[in-house]
Amino acid sequence: MLNHSIKRCYGPECEDVVCTGRYWWLFLASSLVTLAVGTGLVFLVRFITRLPCLNRRRHHVAGPDGSGCCAGICPINLLEKNAEAEIHSIEAAKDWATRLLSAQSRFGRILLITYFCISMASYAIYVIDTGKPIERCLPADRGDLLFFIDNIFNFFFLGVFIFRFISWNDKFWFWFSVNTLVDIFTIPPTFVSLIISRTWLGLRCLRIMILMQLPEILQLLRVLRTSNGIKLTSLLTIVAGAWLTSAGIYHLVENSGDPWINFNNSQSLTYGQCIYITVVTMSTVGYGDLTPKTTCGTIFIIFFILGVLAIFASALPEIVEIVGKGNKYSGVYEPVKGKKHIVVCGHITYDSVSNFLKDFLHIDRDVVNVNIVLLDTTDPDLELQALFRRHFTKMRYFQGSVFNPSDLQRVKLNESDACLILCNKYSPRPDTEDSGQIMRVISIKNFNPEMRVIVQLIQDHSKTHLLNIPSWNQAYGDDVICIAALKLGFIAQTCLAPGFSTMMANLFAMRSSSEIHVKVVKDDPTERVVETQSVVKNASSPAETYLSPEGWMSHYLHGCGNEIYTESLSRAFDGMTAPEMVKECFIKLKLLLIAVQQNNEFDETEIIINPGPYITINQGTVGFFLAPDATEAKRAYYYCRACHSEGVEVEKIWKCECKECESLDNNHAKKYTHKDGHKLLAMTRLGDHHEPAPARSPSAELAELKIQGVNLSESSDHDRPAYDFTGLFHWTPARTVEDALITSAQKRRYLVNHIIVCLFGDESSPLIGLRNFVMPLRASNFKYEDLRTIVFLGNIKYIEREWDKIMNFPKVFIYNGSPLSRADMCNVNVHQSAMCVILSANLGDSVEQGLQDKETILSSLNLKSIMAAGAHSRRSKIIAAYAAESPTRLNGGSIKRSLSTQGTPKITVPMITELVNDVNVQFLDDDDEDDPDTELYLTQPFACGTAFAVSVLDSLMSATYFNAHSLTLIRTMITGGTNADLEEILAEGGELPPGVQISRTRLKELLRDRCTVAQLSIGTGVFQQFKEGAAYGSLFLHALESGILCLGIYRNLIIAGKSSSKRYVITNPPQDFDILAGDRIFCLKHFEDLNMNKEIPETALIGSDL
């Protein structure tokens, strides 16, 4: 292409020799000279300003104070007033120029936007000029409008250039900034064009570099507000700027040709074709249809591949990730008409979400017409994404923050039915985790004060901060699930009734016996399959199920299928007493009623566990049932005496055609809403007058140790129990750690039938809340003489940190030692203990799952080794002889001693081990075959009640959402009752307040209305008349006449026809279930104390005089 021929000039008949000349070097030289002169002037000015200091340095090396003349920067005549005024003027001009260009001012924002728009207009003129010759003349008689407009733009750029130069701090590096280089290669050629009346296309393509300021412009216009949007725009502008600029340079060199061969090898390419070449080269495709023909073009492509390709390769994956992520997890949730939805946030991981979904969407529930919306700030991993795909009809995931109101609006929190906040139960910093949970509650309540919130917390004391939130209201369904309190409460009740933690965990978890198909095998011994855990695991496939219907696992799984359901009671039960209704439901409906909910005289909702004959069923009463699924629980609502006579099968008890049943439909819809307030009957109502109670001396309990032949669980005749200010718990004056410390051998000698708690924390470990373990064991519905001594074995520095929370409970002692030491375990008489509890440290210092429970597993194995060694020791023989002579000294059944045929005693101490990781349950027993992939509830240690993990508490979130009263029921059964006033006092710290004036009548009501968990043996006490082979239904009805409510059986484990010392849990067995002689019955008993029926002076019921 002849760029300078007469034909291509705008002067059609231009005969000037200048038109055919080439002056590209002049345009390029103007830019390079400008850059060189600019940097040279900066160096010259700096040298001149420092020249006086250099001259002075020759004559004055140092001043009187030792500092040189040129210790710092020494400008010209710095000490002269004129010089100071000049410096101030320069600084003022610099500040003025900075404010002028700053986007903080309105003028600066307008200038920035104007500069961007004019730069894009200048680039547009350049694109138009690419269709004209690279270099052409401009005849004076014919003007070029675009050239004129572009010159105006360049004068504007020159003014901005001057302002930027004034405001720049380092003048030298100013010349090498991107905007300066763009101005240098576009503004000076304009002046050359005006002088010689010629124009050169040159490097005007550099104006497109202004695109890199587009994110800043869009932020000023409030178009970009998210970090992902800003990052995506920045990446796109960088790639586009490099792409279009490179296309312009390639267009210049290819259309011009090589100068050393007189531009004879140029080729005619449009700007669009150059863009195409750079795109295919940038994407490493290179079709070869268009290739460079000039040497300059070839060299440019080499550098282009090395530079721009690296930018493209690094930016493209981020662009794809942001765009893909935005399409998946951004956007707005659109509620489905006729369906509610809940928002789940907090600790969102595969484990937490899968555990939640498994219970929330369980088949045993009624049709769950609720969608789940997850909100979290992180990107879901591959496992979590797979979980989303499996439940895509029920669940949506949105990326956002609970603390951002716009994100809460995206998930339609205002329209949701509730907000559930999951926590990281395994966090090594529980206080920090709880603080984050509480802040989420504050953010949600600030967004919508009436939103129902169910939150998980680790520490019990953290829930105090929830009470400080003005909009937190349990009457509207707000509730908190305290992991530590519930966990330790379960373990504490297990000390009273071994296996109770397993029973309760299975009851509030949604599990169905139908999930494991049981195949009946013949009674032929050759065909009977030994029940091992691997068989149970394979039983998930019907073709591989080989469980005997009479085997222990079948019985256990049948009990696992029971859950707690709430249902309104039929009008057919109106007027009945509670025991009569329990009997009616048990016999005719095959349902077990454990509690009722009624309104009292104060119009408050009360939950009454194991209701007595003084409770009458009336309209609106709600029952709590143990049933396999919600459909069976509805029998209590549809039951009709007229239609469901004696001959009607229980499976056919359903809605009938009676008018009475039709009238119930309206009441059934209103049976419960989460805005109904509730109150436990076990809570006391205190009078206005409080008097401190007289009490024993702080060392009264330690004095018991000095009495020969009296164990620590017994009190002397002159000691009488004292209660706290609510009357709910036994109380004693505060004791110091030294008073409770067991040091002498004489004190250790009388530790019998006690509870040992093994702790692994140190002075820096997070607290676990030992008060939650002690309180259920010190409930006032236990007789004082029945309270078992509690001994905490561990680092005394750790126990001291929690001692102020438990120092007001009686019969609590400390032994400074290690649970891993055999000597320390023997020093606390582990052979004669009623229960040994091993609590997990959860220090969070182990990355591998198998090492998270190393302390508890080693301690558990250490205890079993001690028992095995003790069976052959002289010490065990003495203990066995002692037990034979004084059988009443030890709690019957708590310490099991059986003599073998050779007379060697076998000692087994009940124990329960807390685990952090469920998989580690396989290491607790060496005689079972638990597979690592087996769920925790199917393992032998959990079925026997000797293992517990906090993972079983995951199902409480969904249970609380569907029925808020279920959490209240469970909390009351395992914590021994609580009181809002008591929680507030305990939250403030300090001592537990002493007893108050409580009337004998009120105290009798208080103790009568509170049940205790117990385990009764067959053939003794209430069950004395029952022998092996009796039906469980007969036993249940007989116990009901005595005010005892049976829940299940704790039976000896028989594996492959061999008896074992282990026991397993059977929850709510059928009526025709056969009883064995060694069975123990889980039951709920009311408080019994014959002294309460005697005439006691009112003054004797104050504090310790009780």
From TrEMBL:
GO molecular function list: large conductance calcium-activated potassium channel activity; metal ion binding
InterPro entries: Ion_trans_dom, K_chnl_BK_asu, K_chnl_Slo-like, NAD(P)-bd_dom_sf, RCK_N, Slowpoke-like_C
Membrane topology annotation: Multi-pass membrane protein
Gene3D superfamilies given in the database record: 1.10.287.70, NAD(P)-binding Rossmann-like Domain
Pfam families registered for this protein in UniProt: BK_channel_a, Ion_trans, Slo-like_RCK, Slowpoke_C
GO cellular component: monoatomic ion channel complex; postsynaptic membrane
Superkingdom of origin organism: Eukaryota
Subcellular location(s) of the protein: Cell membrane
TM ranges: 23-48, 107-126, 146-166, 173-195, 201-221, 233-253, 268-287, 299-316
Keywords of this entry: Calcium, Cell membrane, Ion channel, Ion transport, Magnesium, Membrane, Metal-binding, Potassium, Potassium channel, Potassium transport, Transmembrane, Transmembrane helix, Transport, Voltage-gated channel
Residue stretches making up the RCK N-terminal domain: 339-481, 752-911
Protein known as: BK channel
Annotated organism of origin: Acanthaster planci (Crown-of-thorns starfish)
